[in-house]
Structures are given as C-alpha cells and as structure tokens.
Amino acid sequence: MNDLDKLLEWLKCHYPFPVTTSLMSLSVGIIGDKTINSHEAESRGSKAMQSVIGKNFHEISLKRSTHITEIIYYGFLMGRSLP
Predict the structure, then answer these.
(1) Which among 2, 25, 28, 60 is placed 20 to 30 Å from 69, CA to CA?
(2) Are 19 and 66 in contact (CB under 8 A)?
(3) DSSP 13-68
C-alpha cells in the first residue's frame, strides 16, 4: 500500500469536514446564510468587467448586484472574530 492509499484510507475513517449543505469557511468554521455569494465571484466579476469596457472612468457605476459578500465578512458582521 503506497502513501496515497494510506492517506485515502485514513480519510475514509476520519473525515475531517462536517457534512453540511451550507457554505462554510473551513478555516474558521463560520457557516454562512443565503446572503453569502462568494461562490459566484467569478461570474459576477466577469459581468462587472463587461459593463465597464469602453467607458470612461467618470461613466462607471457598478451595481450592488455585482458585489460579493464573503463568509469571513459575514462573521465580522455577526460579531465573530478569528480564532
């Protein structure tokens, strides 16, 4: 049995992540609610970039719908601090 097989076998017995359907920060354990949308960052960023192409700086206005709310920011809003 090679090292990878040993690791995979260990992970099967000692799964390190909680089973949840919610978005959760693995580093701090904060669970987000429906306002968390960081998983949409790439598509929202692309949409925002497309909306500013060809415009002068003073013409640019980004809509709130392009903003991202991260889990860590949500944690600070809820009064949680980093461990």
Answers:
(1) 60
(2) no
(3) HS--S---SS-B-TTT-PBP-TT--GGGHHHHHHHHHHHHTT--GGG----GGG--
Q: Where are the domains of the chain?
A: 20-77
Residue 78: partners with Cβ closer than 8 Å, 6 or more residues away: 30
Give the global pTM.
0.49
List residues bridging with 33 in a β-sheet.
Answer: none
pLDDT, one tens digit per residue, over 47-79 is 888 989 999 999 988 887 777 777 775 555 555
Cβ count near 71 (within 10 Å): 21
Identity of the amino acid at 11: L
